[in-house]
Structure formats: structure tokens, C-alpha cells
Amino acid sequence: MTRLISNAILTRARERGVAxxxxxxLLPIFLICLTFPVFFAQYYWHYTVAQKAAQDAARYxxxxxxxxxxxxxxxxxxxxxxxxxxxxxxxxxxPGTDIDDPVIQCGTIPCGSKxxxxxxxxxxxxxxxxxxxxxxVVDTGRYGLDITADVTLHYxxx
Length: 158
Description:
By secondary structure, this protein is of the alpha+beta class.
């Protein structure tokens, strides 16, 4: 009987470090498997914010009065407000980083470049690069992965 007890104690003593060894082997594999879903979630989050920013700016431009759109300086001011909408919303993703100005068009030309016309559509194109700041494992290149959101709406002032 004492021999059985001593064998059980010896067996338990031998297996004491097995869980630590298994954890040491499996933990890096689990971290690698977790890295890519988190990176893609971050990518889609950035894309969603860019799409929403472009949509908000285009919605604002589509509701600007026709009188403002006919005036060159007022149309440029409306485009500047739309630009600020995009910069504010996208800037919240990673404060302190600078993004390129979005492409803001009234019809097929930049807003405010032609006086006396009212566009049939307004377009906002947002493009910026996303870096992998969370893990730093995914090589996103020098400028990051391109995220592009393009929204075109009918102008309601017609």
C-alpha cells in the first residue's frame, strides 16, 4: 500500500511542470493566430470610419443651398467645411497623424472652381494609409495599407 502511495507521489511530481511546458509551446502559436484577426478588424474599423466620414461630408455638400453652390467663394467654403468633416472624423482614428486632403467634387470639377453652375452630383473621395500600430507584425509598407472610401450623392438643390 505504501508502495502505491509513493508511486502516485512520484508520478505527480514528474508531471508538475508539464502544464508550464505546454503553455510555453502553445502560447506563441495562439498569439500568432490572434494577430491576423485583430489586424483585419483594425483594417475594417479604419475603412468603416473613412466610409462614414466620406458619407457625412457628401451628405453635407449635397444639402448646401443652390445659391451657395453658384457662388465661387461660398462653394469653396462649403468644400472646406466638408474637408474639415473628413479630417476630424478620420483624425480620431490615430490622433496626431496627418492625412491627405480628400478629393471633393461638385459634378466632375472641384467645388468652387466654376461660378454660376449647380452640380448634379457631389463626390467625396477619402484615401489614406493605415499602419499596423497594434502588433507591428504585419508589413504595411512605407505608407501603410491604402484605405479608400468614395461616396457620390445627388445634389438636392436642383
